[in-house]
Amino acid sequence: MPMLRPDRRASRTSRASRAAAAALGAAGLIALAAAPAAFADDAEPELVVGGIEPVDGLKPGSTFDVPVTVANKGTATAAKVWVTYAVTRGLDFAEVPSNCWTQHVRSYDEMPERWTAVCEYDRPAQPGVLYTPETPLRVKALDRALDDELRVKVDWNAPWPDENGDDPVAGTAPAVKLAETQTGVAGSKRVVDVPVTSVNTADFQVTGAALKGSVGETVPMKLEFTNAGPAWVRSTTVKVVVTPPAGTSVVKVAAFCRADGHVYYCGMRQPAYNEGGHENYTFQLRIDKRVPHAKGSVALSPEARPFDPDKTNDKADITLDVTGGDPTGTPGGPGGSGTPTSSPTDGSTSGSGGSSGSSGSAGGGSSSPADDGTTPPDGNLAATGSPALPIAGAAAAAMVAGAGTLVLVRRRRNQNPG
């Protein structure tokens, strides 16, 4: 095979391309060398807040001041300073200067309800200088105060109101200026959260139910959790533990509840922890059989709650009165049996489960296959007990006799066609 000679024109083009690439690379190196000077012109302020310590031992109705220091750790001067104060619902602002505006923000995305105050200070903040408001903002503890939080944030750009809050309201107290200070400690963060605890109590309690119905009937079981106050509770791991009465099956589980055997553990939404807040749990219970003196319970989980000294209302009974007919089935065994399935409507689980023992109707009639747990998935009756054997044998004998008669008739017709 003949060898192909390289194209000289292509070689010249390749050399030209390499030269152009080298020139571009040199230009890039020159640009990189000049970059530090360019970035130096883009210096920005870096404001941090400090001087805030946790507050403990408050009493409802008392007040405390919030000492704040602002420092600029950046390389450029901030033209203005904005300091934002946010408190949870057990606290409020005693008075708000006219250079500040306040906003009430509703609870959302698992964030608790809060009140904010944004204060604008028309004074430049130079690098390396420490500043503080001439008069600290004063905060008061409300009757519902217990385990609260104070957040302080500093900005060199104006912050926007929260879109989930009410319209901002301007303060009415005399304006407060930002002044240089030689005392205090410069912080290291733009946002600081500090706990604020008060001496107070909250009474968590549960309410049971009195159920009534006949065997085979499905009845609602309505339970309730309440925070009777006076304090709200910001965070807790408490659960509501539900044990249905014996002789029943749960066919629909309440929202926020999950099954663990015959016991159900229920959570709650954040507003339930507010003073006067409550959470309702509605189960659908089928009465499978009468069990003498059957009783269930609803109770709070056993975690420590030092704010709740009253334990007398931490548990309540769920009673069951089965009406009509004679007792059916055998006593004993926990209630709430069954395997509920997920409900597409409210996120709870629903479904029906079998019961232990057969259940007759309230008037003493025959039992229903749907309630006694003896109907297999394909709908055929199961052969349970000796009475079914003679019936099955008689049916088989009848079929054999019928077949023999049919064969005899056909033979006679074949022998006598006319």
TrEMBL record:
Keywords: Membrane, Signal, Transmembrane, Transmembrane helix
Signal sequence range: 1-40
Biased composition (Gly residues): 326-338, 350-366
Amino acid composition bias (Low complexity), ranges on this chain: 339-349
Ranges of Basic and acidic residues composition bias in the record: 305-318
Spans through the membrane: 388-409
UniProt region (Disordered), positions on chain: 297-387
Protein's name according to its UniProt entry: LPXTG cell wall anchor domain-containing protein
Lineage: Bacteria, Bacillati, Actinomycetota, Actinomycetes, Kitasatosporales
